[in-house]
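To whoever picks this up:

The parser on our side crashed when reading a file containing two proteins. I've narrowed it down to the boundary between the first structure block and the second sequence. Both blocks are reproduced below exactly, byte for byte. First block:
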Amino acid sequence: MTTPNKTPPGADPKQLERTGTVREIGSQAVWSLSSCKPGFGVDQLRDDNLETYWQSDGSQPHLVNIQFRRKTTVKTLCIYADYKSDESYTPSKISVRVGNNFHNLQEIRTYRKSQRIVQ
């Protein structure tokens, strides 16, 4: 999602999109996963249904790659993680990396389980 101003903590991304505060741009990207169990892939990760989700199926690290076809400015990234619902499978660390290709990614932000992820 992109936004001209800082998104308030705890804001509902769908409400912000309806009001024109943010614009969903994920559909402009190619999404890939390091692994997934059948029926728990990119479609479930992106379907806006909180009852469906991505479930990895392999060794760590578990990765979600989002590649845009051209340079794209992303000012806000919204991630829904429900620690109370399934603590054992919710990530303890989320790393946000950017770059021109997969081989030159640089970490720009890390969130740990104890931190509030909404920025």
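<<boundary where parser fails>>
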Amino acid sequence: MQPVSLHSLSELERVSLQELALYQLQEKLLVGDLSLAKVGPKGSKSIRQKLESFSKEKKDYSPQTFGIPLFQVIANDRAYKQLQETVKSSRRLCLEVEATVTNFRAQMQKRSQLGRSCWMVPCEMFPEEPLSPAFPDHSSSWSQRRGAMSVDSIADLSDNSSKLLEALQLSHPHELDPRRSLGKKKMLSLNPITWQVPRIVDRCCKHIETYGLQTVGIFRVGSSKKRVQQLREEFDHGLDVFLDEHQSVHDVAALLKEFLRDMSDSLIPRELYAAFLSTASMEVPAQLAVLQLLLFVLPPCHSDTLHRLLRFLSKVAQHAKSSWGPDGQEIPGNKMTVSNLATVFGPNILQKEKPGEKDSGAKDFEDSTAIILVVQRLIEHYQTLFMVSPEMQHDILRRLFQTDPDVIDYLLRRKFNTVLSTESEDLTEEHAPTPLSGQALESNSVSSEFYSNISFLNLDVDI
């Protein structure tokens, strides 16, 4: 097996990875039972119970973007997208009806003119035509249309598809007991899940990547509070905000920072704040290993959004220094190094578990230093941190063999086919002719790896 991206894993594999990462973190004593402080009179509330609310999307569309949980922002974006698609579909239907009526009128007018000039011709010479327009038929089922939903899952997709979020939430080990969910078979897809990044985050990042990478002091130079407030209100009212060259890069940068700062749940959940900060005192290899486990534990919407943000910040840092263009002209750098970006974004990404309680100034300074160091590591190594090692993939398959043995064959075949397609693309790119015997030999080596994985798991698979 080769290292694979976290986002290439199927939903089922990703759930298993979360559970494995949580167990390993608890073995390292970096996280406890991950329980929240008392919430009301009901006592403690586990992090799973808190994060399970991510799947309880509101049925009524609310366009709000700022100051609400991240899962709700994504749910609002999804509802907005569905609303837009409904409007487009309605407009398309109106245009089709209008075209049908216009065509019918033209035919009737032509027939009327022809009838006046040839009134002596028998009626049998004219083909029968309908006396009313034939409107397009939209009664066909959605399953017969192109683009209909198709999901490979363990159970049939008969329940609300919003359980996709619930299935991937952080789990407590004692809550993973299958006896707790008798009669409630969760739908866990064998396909990767859709990226869950808020519209505002993606558009702000794309705008700055397009227009602001050479802007000196990006994220540090002041912005227009009035224009930022206007953009904020437009997103909060559900408007389709397009950020183009007319918007100031500094305004968009301030808008992105405000969104992250005002989230009711921190981008990195506050329950993991202490665990992330504890890595600041570790040696780099050990620090990266623990940070990777912590990233695997994150709920998907937080993980995907953090990945998008870190990729963006890494790209900004690559343009920190000045460079020279092909014509010998100097291209100024933005002077935002990884350290500077970590200083600006650290407090917005990592927030304390109890922001209302202030510690001593020395403790705050200590935390601030650790936050900058941790976020700096995340930016520098984000590509490696979001990769799943072959060893961890084997652990995932072992775990699934105990819980869902019927899907192991499918997952192994998919990995095998992915390896073959990747190697085929590499050979095509190299444009180097390879003898047939060599191709067969290479294919046999991959097949042997496939069989070794099966024997390693003690599986009986019919090939």
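After patching the parser it read the second block fine. The radius of gyration is 28 Å. The longest helix spans residues 70-117.
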